[in-house]
């Protein structure tokens, strides 16, 4: 083989080895870049999980916490882009940046949170970014996604129901639940139509619906609900029953002659607005759960209405345990029932209407708030005084 040919082959081999070496170095740098980004994502997800699980992050602060997490994830994904120029490994101080933000959020007073500079997530119907959809529908065990009932998935794209086709849903079926539902609807409508209250300030009460529906449409829905006779939810697929923390499923409900329990209590919504289950660290009540709780504790309602007095008189003269409807409890439920106590119905409805949040087409109350309110306002039944009246 000529000497010149050998030299060409050696030069080609050196060039090939040089290109392979450069490619290997480039791949190693790229691998390190991706490992660095993935490692940081793992750290912030672990930190978020600890804050969410161990620090008992309250529900009002959850939107802002997820907003901080979103920005951090987007930042790390941009760092991992192949087109990134001038990439440098993360500095040690960057590891604590996310933790510091979460800790500041935890120690921030709830009253100040409403006025924080960082606004809540966008409440427009169509988000410019698919982050919320992708994040909340993830299969990662950190974030439990909202579960849809079988009938809900068949609705497709929800369509608004016009005023001319308003149809009420038979939800509030007893005098107490009807009064409580209407009081909550009136309170919510006043809040929504108060121009002095910003969207950020009402995020705690209406965040579950404002993240999908504009405030004006929510206010319009409340107006239609209040126009229903009797006052009840209106059929509108944009406002499902959001069973937050098991709301609506804690106690048995009697409709007509049928007694249901669990999610069967929400049958009126399965073929109308739909049901969406949202997990929560705390238990939440709907209006029927509140009524069921009062019944289970043998708590009687005293109203300014004169029709309530005979019921109280009859209960005071007997040893039979009664529910808040004035009906005797079954014998198997009377053994462990505490002595009868009463609570002012007007007072508890007024107070609960200030404690409620919107769960789509209904209202919900944190269980511990209900228990605290009742324990501070319930009184022993004045048997002697009632017998004197007779």
From TrEMBL:
**Gene3D superfamilies, from UniProt?**
1.20.5.170
What's the domain of life for this entry? Eukaryota
GO-annotated molecular function: DNA-binding transcription factor activity
Q: Which InterPro entries match?
A: bZIP_sf (IPR046347)
Q: What name is this protein filed under?
A: BZIP domain-containing protein
